TrEMBL record:
Domain of life (superkingdom): Bacteria
InterPro entries: ABC2_TM (IPR013525), ABC2_TM_bact-type (IPR047817), ABC_2_transport (IPR000412), Nod_factor_ABC_transporter (IPR051784)
UniProt-recorded Gene Ontology molecular function terms: ABC-type transporter activity
Domain ABC transmembrane type-2: 55-282
Keyword Ribosomal protein: no
Similarity comment: Belongs to the ABC-2 integral membrane protein family.
Membrane topology note: Multi-pass membrane protein
Keyword Magnesium listed: no
This protein's name: Transport permease protein
One GO CC term, this protein: ATP-binding cassette (ABC) transporter complex
Entry keyword set: Antibiotic resistance, Cell membrane, Membrane, Transmembrane, Transmembrane helix, Transport
């Protein structure tokens, strides 16, 4: 006589497992695992806006082109600024890369004020995403935009005969310096936005600080030709460290790359912390 088939024991185990899930929901994934994905998603959202309207890329390429074509070529001929034997247009090119990246990032706070006025910011703040992730996503999106601008400036400089390096590792370092510098300046802009709470006021503050940051750096001339007080300003200006890193990587001039990247990384981290702390005030 054949025996009746025994019931599979796995069914009971599955029922116990399902009952356990009902009584005790699965634990949430640690926040530090979700943070990079959320930052990347927010960065991608910011960059999608650029894909719908590329006018900004074309219009922002005009100013750095004029700096290199007019200012750079003229001062190369008159040899008015000592650059240690480097042609002035070569010396200027890294400074213009940093300048164009800063000009993109420094008005980034206007966008976050627009998002507040449109109600987008409040919707983002009620999601589980940390405020630091929101700011970091926007900061690195501005860095990617600045990186696109840097490529345009590098192409123009190459056409003008600037002796740039094409070493892939050095170009990766250039990309890192551009992104870190832009992250800091965009966070500075968003911090100011959290203080002034108005697009008009932010425009005024942005215009008031961009030129002092630019002329108070080593983008146009070496530290040695500056008066003492301006040298002190340049030494606390993150743009100076970005220019020094870009110049050392692209031209091979002497540079303190470890110090430059350390200052840029710390400045970006402090900028993210400051902008994140004021994000709630901006949304109110």
């Amino acid at each position: 006589m054949s025996e009746a088939p025994a019931a599979p024991p796995a069914a009971s185990a599955d029922r116990d497992h399902d009952l356990g899930l009902l009584l005790r929901p699965p634990g949430a994934r640690p926040g530090w695992r979700l943070l990079p994905a959320r930052i990347a998603a927010l960065c991608a959202v910011e960059l999608q806006k650029l894909s719908h309207d590329r006018t900004e890329l074309y219009t922002r390429a005009v100013q750095p082109a004029l700096w290199l074509l007019i200012f750079g070529q003229t001062f190369t001929r008159i040899k008015a600024i000592p650059t240690g034997g480097t042609p002035y247009v070569d010396y200027l090119a890294p400074g213009i890369i940093a300048q164009s990246a800063m000009f993109i990032a420094i008005f980034y706070g206007i966008q976050i004020i627009w998002e507040r006025d449109a109600g987008v910011l409040n919707k983002l703040l009620v999601t589980p995403t940390p405020r630091s992730a929101l700011i970091t996503g926007k900061a690195f999106a501005s860095g990617v935009k600045a990186l696109i601008q840097a490529v345009v400036v590098i192409v123009i400089a190459a056409v003008l005969g600037v002796a740039l390096t094409w070493n892939p590792l050095r170009l990766l370092g250039v990309a890192a310096a551009v992104v870190l510098g832009s992250a800091f300046f965009s966070c500075l802009s968003m911090t100011i936005a959290g203080i002034v709470l108005s697009r008009d006021r932010l425009m005024g503050f942005g215009q008031a600080i961009t030129m002092p940051l630019f002329f108070g750096s080593n983008a146009l001339y070496p530290l040695s030709v500056m008066p003492g007080w301006l040298q002190a300003v340049s030494k606390v200006n993150p743009l100076s460290y970005q220019v020094d890193a870009l110049r050392g990587l692209l031209l091979g001039t002497p540079a303190q790359l470890a110090t430059d990247f350390a200052v840029l990384a710390v400045a970006a981290a402090l900028g993210i912390a400051a902008a994140s702390s004021l994000l709630g005030r901006l949304a109110r």
